[in-house]
User: Fold these one by one.
Assistant:
Number 1:
Amino acid sequence: MHTPAIATTWDHSAYSVYQLSNSQQTKILISDYGASIVELWNCDSAGQLGNIVLGYPHLQDYQQHNCYLGAVVGPWANRIKDGRFNLDGRQIQLECNQGSNHLHGASAGFQRKLWSVIEHSPSILRMKLQTTPTEAGFAATIDVTVSFILDEQNRLTIDYQASTDLATPINLTNHSYFNLNPKAQNIWQHQLQIAADSYLATDATGIPCAEYPVDNSHFDFRQLRSLDSLGTQRNIDHCLCLNRQRQHKTEHAMYFAAYLAEPESGRSVSIETTEVGLQLYTGQHLKEFTDRLGRKCGANSGLCLETQAYPDAVNGLDQESVILRPGHIYRQTSRYQFNPPLLLADNLH
């Protein structure tokens, strides 16, 4: 029998935390502040529950820091070079908040917004948000809905939909930091597999400048490998180009993207997505903090596997694929299967 739908006020504020749960003992806490996953509990191989995502202890920590822990990121996840692009013959200048570049929506970022809950049950949480025109340079009013669905197969599906009154770039993702072993201070004993034959090299500011094969590089995760094997090249914040999504381009089809495992705990998670890119970020810029359970966290305490369009795609040859126009619906879906069976090689191609 399921736990009833639970919602609690967060730190005596206007914000709340909503709970999803299933019969597998998986429990997910999501706030309407940033549509953020603040806790995600599931069982290890011994049946012991543990929280496998990083989260700040208090609301004010989310408001004061810019690490995007667990948040829905938009209107544009990742970077836009110089915050500038041309659209329908007009040059658009967005706010720049990471050096000379635009990152994660800048002051218009969804991670700092109060989302309105439109449906909540033990298995579904659906929220909506309407953006403010001209904020951070985005001219459009965008209506966004995000749905978190936890099923009895121990899968969390995050479904994003959006519509607009004016043509606008859009690229949404979830920015959870995973650490599948709550006892571990860092991620280096995790094992990772990514279905990507190529990656996007970047300039010093994180803007893609070329696509290269992963062969003979530290970005080759086609076979399951330990993150510790990265050695001195372990700090990564790059986009890998997912194979099946590029090859098939079937409208809104989901394909395997990545598999993350942690041997000591026996936990794992497999990710499917509709998106062409997976931003792998090893959390090297995380500042020290104590999480909601009293655990000391800092650089490399968690890693992000962000399903999304390519960084700066609005300035690329396939710009139209990331432009949402009036009368059309943007949709992105990613699914996280907790503790799945080991993957087979044919998932990669």
Note: Helices lie at 59-64, 243-248.
Number 2:
Amino acid sequence: MGSSIKKIFLGFLLFILAITALASVLGYFGANNWFFDLFSHFKLQYLVIFIMGCTFLFWFKKKRIILIFVPFALLLCVDIIPLFFSKNKNTTLKDTFKLNSINLLISNRQFDTVASYIHRKDPDIIVFQEVTSLWHIMLDNRLANYPHRKTIIRGDGFGIALYSKIRFTSIEEMKTGSDEVPSLLARFKFNHQDITLLASHPPPPVGTYHFEYRNDQLTKLAERINSTKGELILTGDLNTSSYSTHFKKLVSSTDLIDTRAGFGILPSWPTWFPLANITLDHCLISSGLAVKSREVGDFTGSDHLPIFVEIGLNHGKFNN
């Protein structure tokens, strides 16, 4: 490589690394600013850029410059590495129920693809988001083996539904947040234990207006969770990533456990740009539950991938 080309490439590389460092820091100031909050979601991408960039710097024998960017990479690892470890992961669980959370996308017309995926995975409970009147009809026609249902139809992307093979002891609509986007609260028994399932889909936090509504809904969800007795599951497209200040606040204030912990990052959105994939679709559980498996599903025509979780009781807790 010629010296002039080498200098141009090195300058461009340093520019990219500097921008990445800035972006990685801005995300930590997203508690009160929707724009800065957006930068918190792409920590895996930042880390990949740092690793690739520092590899080139090492090749160019610029070891001292590498030391500038190492602290930024290590700071990212603080949030990323814990997703690969969990005390509530138990792959030997024998008695479990399977849960799917699927953001359908209101403009999606791949009805048979969605139904085929569900029949293949055979979940016991399904949470649907972005349920319209058309999706309601199409799901009814294709999922007759899920007799226990509750559907709230909306045309604005915030329709929500629960389909289940397990009988609910109760199920109700719950308005959460200032904009009163509906959530669903269902209760059922599993191996004689009471379990509450909370399904929610807060608005996307783009702009101050929706950012505040999203945060308010997460706060209201936390309040309801903390007032609920027994084991609990919160699932849905929460429109926040695992790294956001507001997601961390939700988890810490409720003591819920992210089911992806122990299984990796498992990003689910956007399907149309995999390099930018982030973790918007979540399933959180209380400490009395354990996770046998957790995965993202196949492409079903939506901008989100489905998430699939196999859950059982945490016998260590109930045996103590």
Note: The CA atoms of residues 58 and 155 lie 53 Å apart.
